[in-house]
């Protein structure tokens, strides 16, 4: 999940998506969650996705009522336990949360990190049977 107004993280995640598409023979889903739901309408996020040439039904840009977005952010671990710190949304911007719920494997990394490294990290949550060429230690 990510939403970064300057688009660097989104562009990087597009590279990650392409890498994973080549490595995994199963659908991988991306959900970019706005940190500014009061400003980011569904139409604005559609425009953002179009601007970045994201045209994949497996990548959704999400917004909603501010309280609902905040609840979701807390439920998936994008919240600081200190409410004063948590109010600073810049601390959460550009962060990527990835996981495999059935296997209870979850991780977080900076969305602007090297795309190959992010794909490798996400790969740890991908079942071996889904990989085109799994390594012997996976």
* Overall body shape: globular
| Strand order within the widest beta sheet | 1-2
- Output mean pLDDT: 88
Distance between the termini: 25 Å
The proportion of strand residues reads 5-15%
Written as H for each helix and E for each strand, in order along the chain, the element string is HEHEHHEEH
Count of beta strands = 4
Low-confidence stretches: 1-5
Question: Tally the helices: what do you get?
Answer: 5
Kindly provide the radius of gyration, computed on alpha-carbon positions and rounded to a whole number of angstroms. 15 Å
Which structural class best describes the helix and strand composition? Answer: alpha+beta
Which sheet architecture does the biggest sheet show?
Answer: 2 strands, parallel
Helix percentage: 25-40%
